[in-house]
Hints:
mainly beta; 4-stranded antiparallel sheet; 4 strands; 0% helix
Amino acid sequence: MTTGYCVKCRAKREMQGAKPSVVGNGRPAVRGTCGTCGTRMFRMGRG
């Protein structure tokens, strides 16, 4: 599982449904949702 910072919970949480993506400048990133509250999460770098 990938962890990321949830701005709603204000804590590091496990990402549910984490999927790799690429931002506009070509760098890798990971997108998913918070396992606790369901808020969308984003993390730069590979997961």
